[in-house]
Amino acid sequence: MLYEREKQVAIAAATAAARLCEQVRSDRHSRAIAKPDRSPVTIADFGAQAVICQALMAAFANDPIIGEEDSNLLRSPEMSEQLAQVTHYVQTLLPRATPESITDWIDQGNGTVASRYWTLDPIDGTKGYLRGDHYAVALALVEEGEVKLGVLACPGLAVEAAHPEQEQGVVFVGVKGQGAFRIPLSGGESQPIHVTDAEGVGSQRLTESVESEHGNFALQEAIASAVGLTAPALPMDSQAKYGVVARGEAALYIRLPYSLSSERRENIWDHAAGAIIVEEAGGKVTDMYGQPLDFSLGKKLINNQGIIASNGAIHDAVLAAVAESLTSL
Ligand code: AMP
Ligand code: MG
Fold it and tell me: What is the mean pLDDT of each run of 10 residues along the chain (329 residues)?
């Protein structure tokens, strides 16, 4: 099968990284460190990026990786204690790792977009991770601007949506033309997943970010009710939202800017993995104008604004409701 080796390597790497993040959190070592742009990062973000870049480099030496983090902050003298902590956790998976090899692996994730590349968010939803809520380790392979493979490890989601009291931690996978499936984070059988149909459990529900500055909640919720999604919205951090749409727990994920003149554009690593998983589960993902997401242009989706990920059936109605509301933005 096409992308079989890429799939195996990506699942193993994202799973190992997610377990590292969980260990850091359960040891209470997940304190926020402020990046120069004031967004939070933790030692787990650095550890997860190191582990995944090491695995990708070992298997696919020529593929560039575009990851969210770099090691500049971690290399500064006042961060020596944090670097020692990152080294400790990475050594639990890679015993011969040193602070030098770890910072080098992290910086392997500072590649540039090419005809084939990987994109990585070692912890998508760091704010959720710090709060004790949802987050995702997100890894995707892009060729010629199109996502071919996406892996999302979501330690906070139950393996079975219908049984939240049972095992936690699920990995979603989507491969172009081969469908989407999920595997328990602890290992085991993979099961195909599918978006909800009109009668499905999640067919009445929108999912959106937890952080109110990350999206225009009032408008997102107005659009959801305009297309008949009347149940209360499900707030969730990270691309776990794409996983929830892909397996039918919600019919729609919307992310709309507060203003059309906003200069902000989405990062490729915040959407690539989730988008292919929803599409391969039978759904549809576009920007707010119905255009496909263009992953060929660099770190940002510079030609796209807003994100609509749906079960497919309601997509056109959502786009029509968005178009009607644009005058209010
Ligand atoms: P979510 O949990 O869906 O809000 O997604 C988390 C992602 O939101 C992070 O990875 C950031 O890249 C992104 N983010 C940070 N600030 C903003 C903002 N002001 N507007 C939209 N997205 C943001
Ligand atoms: Mg992110």
Answer: 97 98 93 91 97 98 98 95 97 98 98 98 97 98 98 97 92 98 96 90 91 96 95 97 97 96 96 98 98 98 98 97 88
> CATH 3.30.540.10 occupies which residues in the chain?
4-192
| Amino acid making up residue 28 | R
Give the pTM.
0.97
CATH homologous superfamily for 4-192? Fructose-1,6-Bisphosphatase, subunit A, domain 1 (3.30.540.10)
- For ligand 1, whether the C-beta of 234 sits within 6 Å is no
In whole angstroms, what is the distance from residue 104 CA to residue 86 CA?
13
Cα of 101 vs centre of ligand 2, distance in Å, is 24
Distance from residue 263's CA to the centre of ligand 1 (Å): 14
Question: Is residue 234 classed as helix, strand or coil in its secondary structure?
Answer: strand
Residue type, position 60, single letter: F
